Amino acid sequence: MKVLVIGGDGYCGWATALHLANKGYQVGILDSLARRHWDAKLQVETLTPIAPIQRRLARWYQLTEKSIDLFLGDITNYDFLKKALHQFEPEAIVHFGEQRSAPYSMIDREHAVFTQVNNVVGTLNVLYAIKEDFPDCHLVKLGTMGEYGTPNIDIEEGYITIEHNGRQDTLPYPKQPGSYYHLSKVHDSHNIHFACKIWGLRATDLNQGVVYGVKTEETALDELLINRLDYDGVFGTALNRFCIQAAIAHPLTVYGKGGQTRGFLDIRDTVRCVELAIANPANPREFRVFNQFTEQFSIGDLALMVKKAGVAMGWDVEINHLDNPRVELEEHYFKAKNTKLIDLGLEPHYLSDSLLDSLLNFATLYKDRVDHKQILPKVKWNR
């Protein structure tokens, strides 16, 4: 099968493209390299050294003799997108190609508008291109668990059956996003759902939790294939930040009370989930939703896990609580369903088994690359 990975130079996209190529799929990467541009604008770098995409792909081919096609351009440019699709003729499209940082979207009006336009227009272009020329193509779209927010009821997988005034219906699960980025993903979900209903498209929305880890079977083959490890206050996750802070003897920076709870999964499970979605496609007119995570942790839980692992390595690890730069509930109910991918065959990796190998060893190896000015948060939601 021919699979086009939009955003294949990014964190999830790069690991997914290599994984699918390794499994025998004919893979193309479409990317604007915008993620690298945003780093340059913010004057931040991933902890791990990332080679240019052309060198990455050349090294992959040297090691495996499996080629990956490359299309450089922006999916908000419809003419470019159409041309690339006709050159590659995908049977499935994996869509990671969006601005994915909540803090980035909350920097100011300019960044909020860019995030919404880039994400929503890009996805709309993909939908129209599929509808016009590749109607049987299966769209696998990266959503986010952040679309749901933190409701005081269990989070179902995309849909909820409710009774109201004696009548019953199954409806899309209510969305309570917490940033302009997460709002853009909600708009995407509504647009994809609508396109499936009116045009008969087939799509899978992977509402993904927070991803951690650097290594997959493929990215571990060579340093030129290494994946990103972002730790800064804009693109870095709390878990990444804690691991880097522990490695450089900086107190772990927990925002607020630390009771904020989210779903998490290893990058090795991300690539496997995408593979399972492609191998078991949605039906025409079907917009299905999989909650893509394997475990749930609070931010305080993560800090304690990193502290325990760091102490075992001989580090002196402290935990500090900072004023929360975000507007969010810091203590809340959170119970989300995640059975559909398990039913398809996902065998999860767990953080307790992979914290050292997936994160702390990389934090130790590359700690000389840490920019201490990027440790603390710089973006506030309510300013």
Give a verbal description of the structure:
The protein has 383 residues and is of the alpha/beta class. The protein has a single domain, classed as 3-Layer(aba) Sandwich (Rossmann fold), CATH 3.40.50.720. 39% of the residues lie in helices and 19% in strands. It has 12 helices and 14 strands. It has a 7-stranded parallel beta sheet, with helices on both faces. Strands 9-11-13 form a 3-stranded mixed beta sheet. It has a two-stranded antiparallel sheet with strand order 6-7. A hairpin with a 2-residue loop joins strand 6 and strand 7.
Determine the N-to-C terminus distance. 48 Å
| CATH architecture label | 3-Layer(aba) Sandwich
Low-confidence stretches: none
Q: Which structural class do you get from the secondary structure elements?
A: alpha/beta
Fourth-tier CATH superfamily name: NAD(P)-binding Rossmann-like Domain
Helix content: 25-40%
Mean pLDDT: 97
